[in-house]
């Protein structure tokens, strides 16, 4: 009887497991079908503006059966490919997750409808059920990140300055010049790509949002971006509305990393005062010692014109990361400041608030900035 009872329990458990798996599979299939219908409706609405659509078998042919992997990120894997007419492309195969749907539509809705010399071009896309992919122009030199965080000054100051100015022009176009304003929300060295001639192009619009020209702010439900580049108002709504000035903050952090040729938060810094580069750079500017100290760190000669470029990049970067978003310049103004035309950039005020109390909103922001930036969490 005991054996019979055990057998009955086992059979019942197995039957329940089978039923659960069937229901789970059915639920997943329903979700996939729902997602597929949503994306297809979106593509139908944008069809008159869309780049070329490719089938999955065509993607396999373009990438030689996904033979040449270029890299892997949070949203998928990127492969090198070649179109029939000979153009080299980067093919991003998106992960099958709830985030890939929104990233796919974000990229198509933004890059699929705009064109600018300093924005990476979306050349095509693929969507078949749960499989989606995006095809971009191929950027031979990869991301800016691998050139500014390495030992030895691979890029000269003039080249770095040109890259900074080009990236600024691309972002300014998003904010002020295209038909529908776009906030990128993830400006950082990894998302500035360089072609064979080191022309910079802003990439990765997976977190981007369209922003109506009549609106004075944008609504978001969660913090967007990468720790270390995220503006204070994105951490806490008490610090002001989210606007295009959030991108300005991120660009400022990027610009400072280019000027310092190091990460803004560097746990390997020889002195604690140099741990956070923006604060150290601000103090050096106040003392008039910026160029001298950066010369000591660099491996290439720095002439007077180079010194001017570094000084300008640093000052503009510090203006961009002002704690109060109203004190930050627009990206169009940033372009003007970088172009210079002989005019010096005025010294920025202290970008950071005075040392906050441990429980204040400001303290929470700085704790997140440092802890998340250092740990990558």
Automatic annotation (TrEMBL):
The keyword Cytoplasm does not apply. It is found in: Membrane. SMART domains: S_TKc (SM00220). The keyword Acyltransferase does not apply. It comes from Taxus chinensis (Chinese yew). Pfam families: PK_Tyr_Ser-Thr. It comes from the Eukaryota. One of its GO terms (cellular component) is membrane. ATP binds at residue 92. Belongs to the protein kinase superfamily. It is a single-pass type I membrane protein. GO terms for molecular function: ATP binding; protein serine/threonine kinase activity. InterPro entries: Kinase-like_dom_sf, LRK10/LRL21-25-like, Prot_kinase_dom, Protein_kinase_ATP_BS, Ser-Thr/Tyr_kinase_cat_dom, Ser/Thr_kinase_AS. Keywords: ATP-binding, Glycoprotein, Kinase, Membrane, Nucleotide-binding, Serine/threonine-protein kinase, Signal, Transferase, Transmembrane, Transmembrane helix. This is Protein kinase domain-containing protein. Residues 64-353 form the Protein kinase domain.
